[in-house]
Amino acid sequence: MTQYHFISGLPRAGSTLLSALLRQNPAVRAGIVSPVGSLVAAVLKDMGPDNETSLFLDEAQRAALLRGLFDSYYGALPPGTAVFDTNRGWTGRLDLLARLFPDCRVICCVRPVPWIIDSVERLIRRNVFEVSKIFGSDVGGTAYSRAELMMAPSGLIGFPLNAMKQAMHGDHSARLLLLPYDTLAEHPQETLAAVYEFCGLPPFKHDVDDIAFDAGEFDARLGTPGLHAVRPQARREVRETILPPDLWARWEGASVWRDPAFHRRVAVGGTPGADHGTAAG
Q: 110 forms bridges with which residues in the sheet?
């Protein structure tokens, strides 16, 4: 039987690196965002009150239909494969996942919010001849307006951040593992061992110096080449931010999981307050 686990959390926070490492294990399936999340959303809508025939679906049938989406998409995998399906929205559906897959776990990749904004901004400035769909193909804007769009309730950062905060304080918060980007990049073997243990999977020795992953076509279609690029070696890059100091300061307090009074689970490595690089502007 296929085991289902999930990768969620914030963008530009290590989910692609985590997937690239996990997929080295032949008993594991992982990748960038899959279509299952959007399929679940579509079926949930079709089973809602806007569809009068939904009256004929009981709870067991609804659950079976949703589980069937996962089993159909991953049906060709060998028996016993552990699937890590990636979607930023899974933390917003944690109650649903717990009902569908009672043994599932969710790995939430996190990174200080200003560094996420910095990372996206670097991509935008690097790809000067591209128009990124991240911002609705808007050719104008500045670092300030782009940050505002990303931090909006439905934005690239704002939505998954709010979904994660909701999950962290819900009934199923014990299913979450907060995984800081720096911890994964600096201590990949130890971090992966913690992920395997948390998910109840047998350990596996990964090659952290020969990482292969290619999502070039996907990134090109988004008008953002390099969005899912992964270095061949897992390591932490120390650099200075390109964000103006006032922009950095505005969103520094958004990294709420670094506050022990806020988060319920201790991040891998026990260092939820660790920063990436320096904040010098």
A: 180
- Residue 132 backbone dihedrals phi, psi, to 5 degrees: -75, 135
AA identity, residue 102:
P
Residue 144 is part of which domain span? Answer: 3-270
Residue 10 has pLDDT above 60, yes or no: yes
Identify whether 36 is part of a domain. yes
Q: Look at residue 281 in the predicted model and tell me its pLDDT.
A: 25
pLDDT digits over 140-173, tens only? 789 999 999 999 999 999 999 999 999 998 889 9
Sheet strands side by side (includes 3-9): 28-30, 82-86, 3-9, 106-110, 176-180
Give domain status of residue 34, yes or no.
yes
**What's the CA gap between 100 and 94, in Å, rounded?**
10
User: Tell me: the pLDDT tens digits for 226-243?
Assistant: 666 677 667 677 789 999
Six-digit token string for 39: 């399929």
Burial of 153 (0-12, 13-18, 19+ CB in 10 A): exposed
How high is the pLDDT of residue 3? 95
Cross-strand bridge partners of residue 3: 82
3-state DSSP call for residue 26?
Answer: coil
Look at residue 29 and tell me if it is in a domain. yes
Mapping DSSP to helix (H, G, I), strand (E, B) and coil, where does residue 214 land? coil
Cα Rg of the chain (Å, integer): 19
Instruction: Supply the DSSP string of 261-275, one letter for each residue.
Output: TT-SSPPGGG-TT--
Overall number of domains in the chain: 1
Whole-angstrom distance, CA of residue 48 vs CA of residue 46? 5
Nearest to 151 by CA among 55, 68, 247, 29: 247
Q: Domain with 235 in it: what CATH number?
A: 3.40.50.300
Sequence letter at residue 201: L
Asked if residue 250 has pLDDT above 50, the reply is yes
Does the residue 240 lie in any domain?
yes
Distance CA 180, CA 270 (A): 10
